[in-house]
Write a structure and sequence with these properties.
The chain is an all-alpha fold and 148 residues long. It folds into two domains: 2-102, no CATH class; 107-147. The chain contains nine helices and no strands. It is elongated, with a radius of gyration of 29 Å.
Length: 148
């Protein structure tokens, strides 16, 4: 009886394994260990934009560069050394370009660049002639905050 029960569970597991929607799993940042073990089933558009997959994607690209370098130098190549060899052409570079992990923002530099415009904008908007025009239009001093 236990053997039949075990066979039924195994049959259902195999069924579930076949019907996974890999496009959703490929997007899931917490499923990276499952995805790494099943790269042949991954939906590459979703996987390429998955922030947690960036290390795998970079490793695939690095392996491809190493392989191409060896081909160019006519060195002996053992494809077994390249675990991710078959996946380089599957990377969706549109998805990769939407991956937030590939960008490194220089927040300090951006702030410095914006400070130049902030100062100029303050000079223009708070110029005494502009304030006087608003006051001449019978705008109350308390309401000036609305205009700035």
């Amino acid at each position: 009886m236990i053997g039949l029960f075990y066979q039924e569970i195994q049959r259902q597991f195999i069924y579930l394994k076949k019907v996974y929607d890999w496009s959703y799993i490929s997007k899931n940042e917490k499923a990276i260990s499952i995805l790494q073990d099943n790269l042949d089933k991954v939906e590459w558009g979703s996987f390429s934009s998955n922030p947690s997959a960036i290390n795998i994607l970079l490793h695939i690209i690095k392996e491809e560069k190493e392989y191409n370098k060896k081909v160019k130098n006519q060195e002996e190549i053992n494809t077994k050394d390249y675990k991710y060899f078959d996946y380089f052409n599957k990377i969706d570079y549109g998805g990769l370009s939407r991956n937030p992990e590939i960008f490194e923002l220089d927040k300090k530099g951006l702030k410095e660049r914006c400070d130049i415009y902030r100062e100029e904008l303050m000079k223009k908007t708070m110029h005494p002639l502009r304030i006087q025009k608003l006051l001449d239009m019978v705008i109350d001093l308390d309401d000036l905050d609305f205009y700035f």
